[in-house]
# Entry
Amino acid sequence: MINNAGMLSKRYNNFSNQGNKMSANNTQSTVIKKEMGISQQEFHDELPRLLRGIPYQLDKCSIQFQFQGKDVEIKLGSERIRQLGQSLQLPVMPVEISFFDCSEEQIEAFIKHFNLTFLKGGG
# Structure
């Protein structure tokens, strides 16, 4: 599915009793995977605008924070270059956003803000 920000997006719902560093056991998680035309540095540069003052933990390729009282983790994949024609190269990076015990409304609100934050204009 291509969303209004021009990013490929897939959604997965998981029920996990194994837990991870963000969530306790027996949590419902929703994972949204995107392929973005952005470098890791550009993504990190936009974090303040994306999180609007929300405290976060930044590991090597992971950003962890709370959104409306619920845990969210953004994982950045390996950046690569997409070659378009002979002279145009664009960065491409997979991004995975995991929501833990978030309502549908919370997920939609965050994704709408996420998409608007990373929307690139053209013309």
Remarks:
- The chain is about 20% helix and 45% strand.
